Amino acid sequence: MDSARDEISIKVTIGDRQYPLKIDPAEEEFVRKAAKLINEKAKFYQENFSVKDKQDSLALAALEFASDVLSITNSQETEKHLFDKKISYFQQLVDRAVH
Q: d(Cα 21, Cα 19) in Å, to the nearest integer?
């Protein structure tokens, strides 16, 4: 089955602009929530800082979300590295016990 046929058309509004999208139906909730989060964060910057231009508030929101993603990715990579070290250690213990 062609995945393009399974897509749905939606419109999301970000910063007073509407964006038409074609997405997988399973992604709709996440896309709508993401747009809402972006708008809320941009509004936060406008209300709490000297950010008057909507483009600037959207840029700051994007920067914050991108920083969060990178931080989470780095944390996951660190955890994976520690997990790999533990597995290697236990593998060495097993090898010593067997030989």
A: 6
Whether 58 contacts 38, CB under 8 Å: yes
Contact status, residue 12 vs residue 23, Cβ threshold 8 Å? no
Quote the CA–CA distance of 33 and 29 in Å, as a whole number.
6
pTM of the model: 0.73
Residue 12 identity: V
CA distances (Å), origin 66, targets 29, 70, 79, 80: 20, 6, 20, 21
Chunked mean pLDDT (size 10), the chain, 99 residues: 80 97 98 97 95 94 96 91 86 87
